[in-house]
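Dear support,

I submitted the protein below through the web form. The confirmation email said the job was done, but the results page showed an empty box. After a refresh the structure appeared. I'm attaching both so you can tell me whether what I see now is the final result or a partial one.
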Amino acid sequence: MIRLIPLLTLLTVSPLAAQGKKTTSAKPFWPDEGPRTWTARITRPAITANDMRVRLYQFADDSMMGREAATLGGWKGTEYVAREYQRLGLVPGGDNGTYFQEIQYGQLRYDSTRVQLAVAGAPLMLGSQWMPLLPSTPNMVAGRFAGQNVTVVYGGRWLDSTVTLDPAVVRGKVVVFSPAAAAAPRPAGVAAPRDTRASIAGAAGVFVIVDQLTRTALVPRNGLMPTVAGSTGGAAITREVAASLFDRPLDQLSAGALGKSVSGSWTYEYTRPEYPARNVIGILPGSDPVLKHQYVLIGAHNDHIGMVRGTLKPEHDSLRAFNKVLKPQGANDRV
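What the results page shows now:
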């Protein structure tokens, strides 16, 4: 997710939770390493290490709890940045005249009690006969479907780009795909193949036949709600369910063959957290009459990765990874 925090805000001063702490002496790993704590003080016009410490020691203090998105620590961090934007005289660039742009980052899930699918009026068993697909931006599969007596049409193999789907046949229907053909291992850095044919052709839904269903889509997870172009919902179905949709075996069907009707509904739900994740956007207007309508974007993360759950110490995950993995392997060695 994009987080907008102009770097210039790190060069000014404002009190935060770390104020008043006394600098403690500790044996540094490197001779030029800074102290473990830093007392807030007035900054100077020049950009110096000490001026940066005034800002960063407060923003990264344990009281900020790692600033994980959608937590109190993350909320405190964005409030802090917004106050600094206001103090600097930046123009609010967020929602409704504020500095904040709320992001749909929170708990995502399908509610198993509210999803349903039936073939010709006969309900299917969730988990053993079908599962809704997670939203997929690359495949243009949305996290929602609602339809009554929608005709199904066979679309051939999933990911088979040699088969063109006729919008006149597909539009408003549910396209059923056989499993994708076996593929060679994908080289590192190569994007996964995608299939947007049904969505582009205007299908109401996409059903992909799978050999084994998983319940991953029903497991709540924290994340960013995917943005999907279009409204084509998706589901995974077993071979047995797919066979019941058509009057002939699947291996005797050609793309465009019509089948029975299905009815169903499901929605990938977002639960707004108590402390929503937010971008913080401030604008420094330009003075040039020609260029003032163009924008230069300067951004940085305002959140971090939070804290280890269930520990007595406020140990940030990044510190744990460093202390437990990198440091023993010589991460502090000067090369």
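Response: this is the final, complete result; the empty box was a page-load delay. The first strand starts at residue 91 and ends at 92.
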